[in-house]
Amino acid sequence: MKPLDMALTTNKPINTWTKEEIKEIYNTPLMELVYQAQVQHRKHHNPQEVQLCTLLSIKTGGCTEDCKYCAQSNRYSTDVKAEKMIKIEEVLQKAQQAKDNGSTRFCMGAAWRDMTGRKSGLKRIGEMVTKINEMGMETCVTLGMVNEEQAADLKKAGLTAYNHNIDTSREHYPNVISTRSYDERLKTIDNVQKAGIKACTGGILGLGETEDDHIGFLYTLSTMEKHPESLPINRLVPIKGTPMEQELSKLPKDSNRKLKFENILKTIATARLIMPSSIIRLAAGRYTMKEHEQFLCFMAGCNAIFTGEKMLTTMCNGWDEDIELLRKWGLKPMKSFRKEKLPTTKIDDQPSPQPQPASANV
Ligand code: SF4
């Protein structure tokens, strides 16, 4: 069976994709690819619903890691200054503001390598999570690497999801980060999933990677034992003072390492086809896209956006603008805690494919 047909006829997520199969899907003629991704989207999600999430930086800057694209690394000279963790009252007030504006998931980010030696910080974050959950919102945190014990503490606090991106393909990763390995990232994702927390993991497009790296990136995600519940796709906003901005500015105009919009679209559509039940989140850099480009990303299977005042250190489209955009396109905000996940299985274990109504699994 052709990989595209395999993706479209399965009732359960497949986690045995090969790079060749993913490549074949990725290279489907663009019009057909986006159309089939939309067909897939409608089988597994309510096509009218988009999840609105808001991200707050609770501890900005001063990070010891060397991610070449990041304004928060203390190794680079950027406009971001190291700050202390913000107070719980301020976090709750921002969460309430996000809720009042229609966001149903509230994400909190701290610029840390890991949670080692941060017992009291973890406790305070746990309190934030519990209180935000009580407000009826889903919670997500991104705090760097966590071990099983720390993941269990966050689960106890009621955390919905933990974000830890793989960033890019395994092959391209060493060109971007040297202070933590790809496998360390995968370990954290495994730790949170084992603790019963949903994994939010995706990456950044535009790090000087090639199309093969997009395929490698999707391969890592789609062969996880459990597909990510949430898959953020960021478009890099090059930050002055970071090595990545320097490197990208030196790429020749026709370099195959320069990100084209069609590659963002192909990555999203392929992700939708091979990870049908994941929520695909158009994340940082969305504000750099024209309206019709965002529209195409939704056609290709995106069903969540970050909205609010800021995306950590970059700009973000605001709530009013986004609500108006969704209204214009006939979409509506998703309620919190709505998605139910399909169990992951191997292709060989699957029952024969059955047609599903457009609203299945919602
Ligand atoms: S991306 Fe995260 S881990 Fe990497 S330098 Fe920035 S804050 Fe630190």
Which helices and strands appear, and what pairs or packs with what?
Layout (H helix, E strand, L loop, with lengths): L2 H7 L9 H8 L3 H15 L4 E11 L28 H13 L4 E6 L8 H16 L3 E5 L5 H10 L3 E3 L18 H13 L3 E3 L2 E3 L5 H12 L7 E6 L7 H7 L11 H14 L4 E4 L8 H9 L4 E3 L3 E2 L2 E2 L3 H11 L2 E2 L29
Parallel strand pairs: 1-2, 1-9, 1-12, 2-3, 3-4, 4-5, 6-7, 7-8, 8-9
Antiparallel strand pairs: 10-11
Helix pairs in contact: 2-8, 3-10, 4-5, 5-6, 6-7, 8-10, 10-11
The chain binds iron/sulfur cluster.
Would you write up a description of this structure?
The protein is an alpha/beta fold and 362 residues long. It has helices at 3-9, 19-26, 30-44, 88-100, 119-134, 148-157, 182-194, 211-222, 243-249, 261-274, 291-299, 319-329, and strands at 49-59, 105-110, 138-142, 161-163, 198-200, 203-205, 230-235, 279-282, 304-306, 310-311, 314-315, 332-333. α6 (148-157) crosses α7 (182-194). The longest helix has 16 residues, at 119-134. Iron/sulfur cluster is lined by residues 63, 65, 67, 70, 72-73, 111, 144. This is biotin synthase. Keywords: 2Fe-2S, 4Fe-4S, Biotin biosynthesis, Iron, Iron-sulfur, Metal-binding, S-adenosyl-L-methionine, Transferase.
